[in-house]
Design goal:
about 250 residues, 15 strands, 7 helices, five-stranded parallel β-sheet, single chain
Amino acid sequence: MKAFLVDDEKLAVERLQRLLEATGRVEIAGASTDPSEALREIRQARPDLLFLDIEMPGMSGFELLEKLGPDQPLVVFTTAYHKYALEAFRVNSIDYLLKPVNSEQLERTLNKLERIRQGSEPPRDLHALLGQVREALERREPDYLVRVASRTGDRVDFVDVSRVTHFYAKDKLTFAATAAKEYALDLTITELEQRLHPSHWIRIHRSVILNIDQVKELHSWFDGKLLVRLKDGKTELHVPRERAAAVRAKLGI
């Protein structure tokens, strides 16, 4: 069974690929972080199964399927957002996986795929999927921060959270660091941790919260610690030994 993976987050693609390869049940026909390029590659590879992220810049997973046309593989959506699961009924989806995907979720989906391919289960098990969606939608999704405010005198700057490489506390103040500038905030590190999306952020130190999308390199350090280098080309952050395992797991290694 050949599978193709599409997700704009490279780390998510690499994690899912490792999980699939570990099962020994799936051949990876290809993977892409660019939905436009993925269209051409999917047509060439002709996979049996497509693992597809829903929310991607430039083209959503649903838009990709529309462009792909009627000759489509079986689709498993991967998403961190429950609200998108409901729309999966409108396309030829067999299941959906909530991020971060784990091996238990994946095994259940692969078992379902095998039943479908053997003809013992219809391709669109809408009743079962509806139950999953209803259960997911009943769990209220937290109101995660998309921007933070920084006050300087009478001026207020608004900073998109996606631009922030990390938040840190120093001298009883909290700062949002971007590649270009640092902004002082009124929020504490603990308040930020509770209001940032856990799929993209992790507290790597009692005074630092890291945007995992901004990680360029990860290095083992002495005494079980880690050194994180960010994409801004200048920032290095240290992870204490007691948090190293959680950071490795979040980054999929």
